[in-house]
Amino acid sequence: MSIETSETAQAPAIFDSLPYYDNDLERDPSLKERAEKLIAREVQSSTTFHPRVPPPIELFSKDPLLQAELARIEAHQPLPQLDTTRYQLPGPTSVPATQEHWQAALDNAYAQLEHQRIRHANIALMQNYGANAWRIHNYLLETTTKNLEKALEELKELTTEVNRDRKNFQTRVGNQLTTLETRWTELISSVLQIEMANIALEGEIDRLSKKEADLAAATL
């Protein structure tokens, strides 16, 4: 397996290998270290993902209040203290109190009374219908959970099947590559032997030619 990179390449490089067959990384630790550095650099500089990778989910995109609360939790900020002033009925603080101050205190009392009335109505509705509503909600959640678990199992089975097919294919191709590599080595060895034999023959021919020339010169 070879690793090639180009800083000036316009098209993204495609790295391919036969991980179920190649063992170059195990045989060469320096190559493995170099590959890990290239992978880390590619992950840090990559701004796009594989087309099959779903886009990141933005939670509560239509609810700014929930988004702010989620940001607070992610930042590990404490929960703001409850504002208890709205549950109080303070009277006018100025002395002597004007009619406007008494009217503001009276309006606040009316608002508190209405708030308590609404709370009482909500509690009554919750007692009558809350249990069934939660049962239905829990049933829907359980159904959704079962569907997701089933989809996850199917995806795991599909992944296992794909990996099994890849392993079988790469093992079969790897055996062919091993056979071809062995044949290539044998042919190279044969060629080298032939070249060495040719060199030896050329040397023998030169020796015989020289001997023939010496004999011809001696007979003159």
Automatic annotation (TrEMBL):
<comment type="similarity">
    <text>Belongs to the SPF27 family.</text>
</comment>
<dbReference type="InterPro" id="IPR008409">
    <property type="entry name" value="SPF27"/>
</dbReference>
<keyword id="KW-0539">Nucleus</keyword>
<feature type="coiled-coil region">
    <location>
        <begin position="138"/>
        <end position="172"/>
    </location>
</feature>
<dbReference type="Pfam" id="PF05700">
    <property type="entry name" value="BCAS2"/>
</dbReference>
<keyword id="KW-0747">Spliceosome</keyword>
<keyword id="KW-0175">Coiled coil</keyword>
<protein>
    <recommendedName>
        <fullName>Breast carcinoma amplified sequence 2</fullName>
    </recommendedName>
</protein>
<keyword id="KW-0508">mRNA splicing</keyword>
<keyword id="KW-0507">mRNA processing</keyword>
